[in-house]
UniProtKB/TrEMBL annotation:
Coiled coil: none annotated. Residues 104-272 form the Fido domain. InterPro entries: Fido, Fido-like_dom_sf. This is Oxidoreductase. The lineage of its organism: Bacteria, Bacillati, Actinomycetota, Actinomycetes, Kitasatosporales. It comes from Kitasatospora aureofaciens (Streptomyces aureofaciens).
Amino acid sequence: MSTGTDPLAPLAQLPGVPDAVAEVRKAVDRLYGHRVMRRRAAEVTSESALRGARASAAVAGADWPLEEVRRRTDFGLDTEARTVGAALRMAAEAGQLLSVWRHSPLQVLARLHLLAVGDADPAAGRPRRAGERADELFPLELEPVESVEVEAGTGPLPVLPPAPDAEEVAARLDQLSRLLVARAEGHGVGTPALVVAAVVHGELLALRPFGTHNGLIARAAQRIVLIAEGLDPKSICPAEVGLAELGTGTYRRALAGYLAGTPEGMAAWIAHCGRALRLGVRESTAVCEAMQRGMA
């Protein structure tokens, strides 16, 4: 089947997106060619998971120092600790969920939510039902003023629309799942991994399908897509680090572009995901350099 049948294919041709894809590919290839990767790839993967989880939790409101995350063993004491623990559990299991993702992405999303909240929660692993509300995506921010700005930079933060109701969530999740399964079966394989990952990330943020931890789940799903699509098969490029470094305000503006659905907004969102991924590559490159110095 030709790539023209892939509904995501037009997004790859939006202004600026081919450049973003090429820059990401170049950065990732350079990291994979680092001499440390020949001997210590597993260690780089583990460190990437830790740093990505810390950053994802920071975006969700639990901004702990890396060494605090590294040394702690109890993540059930308070809300921030539970958020960090949830992010760590998702990161630890993301690579193991790849085979399930290829034929049942919704099952993986349910598993990610279960990892986040624990099986004692009656809502664990199931999408929101009618009348149930979703959590806040950006709890660290002050209440934004009215604005429709979507570009990165300064200025008022955009007001994001409320999460869709349960019926719309179910329909759009099913559509997303069908798209991803079709790709796993070889349809639409020409669409770049960055584009696919950005759409999955953005759609899950838009839907907020679960009552809690939707941001963590969306970012973990993006990581799984980058592995599944072959861009980052060893999971060493923590895009979550880049998202945290770029800031939640910029993240929110870019997401507003995705939610608007305009060509400009979609291109800006994909470019934002690309910038975050390149910053994640930079983080892991620094890890490799530190390991190399230690081997000298």
